[in-house]
Write a structure and sequence with these properties.
Layout lengths: L1 E9 L2 E6 L5 E5 L6 H9 L25 E6 L7 E8 L2 E9 L2 E3 L1 H4 L3 E6 L11 H12 L6 H19 L7 H33 L10 E6 L6 H10 L1 H7 L10 E6 L4 E2 L5 H19 L4 E6 L8 H14 L2 E6 L6 H4 L3 E6 L2 E4 L1
Parallel strand pairs: 3-13, 3-14, 8-12, 12-13
Antiparallel strand pairs: 1-2, 1-4, 4-5, 5-6, 6-7, 9-10, 10-11, 14-15
Helix pairs in contact: 3-5, 4-5, 5-6, 5-8, 8-9
The protein binds adenosine-5'-triphosphate.
Adenosine-5'-triphosphate binds next to helix 1.
């Protein structure tokens, strides 16, 4: 469990400290108060770019001097808490540094301590938006099963850009060059394909054990972009050279993957389900992911404006599942009322103007 969370010059928080935290933590306040900023700060205690995928330089308090700093104590069952911290410095506003127990460390090392999962309003369009968002969603979740997944995805993308550049060049590309680039794409793309397939299988086996009511249970299918193994990718790239050169881009590979999501009971694609059903399916995926991510690590769930958007029955079911999940939960809302049933057991802060007051 995270405790003694401090935000220094982070977004609109000049100096905010949250201590005596609980399993359930509620941040309530008006729009623009700085609630999501607290969740974003927590999300930076994990590898990656945080829940807004924003540039680090944008996170420093406007008009402030120096970088930002985020710190927290991670309680241990036996022994002293582990001190986790991440910060930027004035000279390098886009480079983040990490300290664990005071010693310089890496963002990847944070992932060995904490398993962070989040659901934010920005994800509401996940099923209806571009496939690239769903691929990124799969890749972020796949990190829970293979910490190297992100690096394979990045290196595949880099090789893909290089192949596309060669294909769109006026001169015909040398086949030796294509051989070398395709070898890179196969090495990393093969891992991306395997990682996404394993993720979807693992999520589905967890979702299958969830009650089908009151949440809409989603059925997830990984739909590879033409190739479902490294060997098939290798062959498809080789066979597709002439076709891809005519198209001036690579037409098959994991950059064309899809994540198909269907409302399991109604057999309706998630993209055609109601807003509330889509939210409920996202909640189910988030809970399944949180459970698989937390194995051997402390699970932290960040739910931004989720509770108020569910009807009372689903909200009660959400709280029940959260309680059973074992994760530390951070939720935001503009009012306390939707949290009435759990507020008595929760740590509650009123957030306003970039500061937080314990209620
Ligand atoms: N780098 C920054 N420095 C200062 N303020 C910032 C910075 N980045 C964002 N803000 C401010 O933070 C506020 C938004 O905070 P946040 O998104 O946490 O609000 P919220 O409480 O979650 O609100 P809502 O209920 O509307 O989602 C905005 O007023 C925004 O201008």
């Amino acid at each position: 469990m995270l405790d003694r969370i401090s935000l220094t010059r982070f977004r609109n928080h000049a100096a905010t400290e949250l201590s005596e935290t609980s399993r359930f933590n509620l941040l309530v306040g008006e729009n623009g108060a700085g609630k999501t900023n607290v969740l974003e700060a927590l999300s930076l205690l994990a590898p990656g770019r945080g829940l807004r995928r924003a540039a680090l330089a944008d996170m420093v308090l406007h008009d402030g001097t120096g970088g930002f700093a985020i710190g927290s104590d991670l309680a241990q069952e036996d022994g002293d808490p582990v001190r986790l911290g991440t910060y930027t410095e004035n000279e390098h506003p886009n480079r983040r540094k990490v300290r664990i127990n005071g010693a310089e460390s890496t963002a990847a090392a944070l992932g060995e301590w904490l398993a962070l999962t989040w659901l934010t309003p920005a994800m509401d369009g996940l099923f209806t938006g571009p496939a690239a968002d769903r691929r990124r969603f799969m890749d972020r979740m796949a990190l829970a099963l293979d910490p190297a997944h992100a690096s394979h995805a990045t290196r595949y993308e880099a090789a893909l850009r290089e192949r596309n550049r060669l294909l769109s060049d006026d001169r015909a590309p040398e086949s030796a060059w294509l051989d070398a680039i395709e070898a890179q794409m196969v090495e990393h793309g093969g891992r991306v394909i395997a990682g996404r397939a394993l993720l979807v299988d693992t999520l589905m086996s967890r979702i299958a054990h969830m009650p089908s009511e009151p949440f809409a249970r989603p059925a997830l299918t990984y739909a590879p972009g033409g190739t479902d193994t490294a060997e098939a990718l290798s062959q498809a790239l080789y066979d597709g050279r002439a076709r891809d050169r005519a198209a001036q881009r690579t037409l098959s590979g994991p950059h064309r993957d899809e994540l198909d999501v269907v409302h399991a009971a109604k057999r309706v694609p998630a993209a055609q389900s109601s807003t509330g059903e889509q939210k409920a399916m996202l909640v189910a995926i988030t809970l399944a992911h949180a459970a698989l991510a937390a194995q051997g690590r402390s699970g932290i769930l960040l739910l931004d404006e989720v509770a108020a958007h569910l009807d009372p029955v689903r909200r009660a079911a959400l709280f029940e599942q959260l309680a059973a999940s074992g994760a530390q939960v951070w939720m935001t809302g503009t009012e306390l009322a939707p949290f009435d049933s759990i507020a008595g057991d929760a740590a509650v802060w009123k957030v306003s103007g970039g500061s937080a007051r314990r209620l």
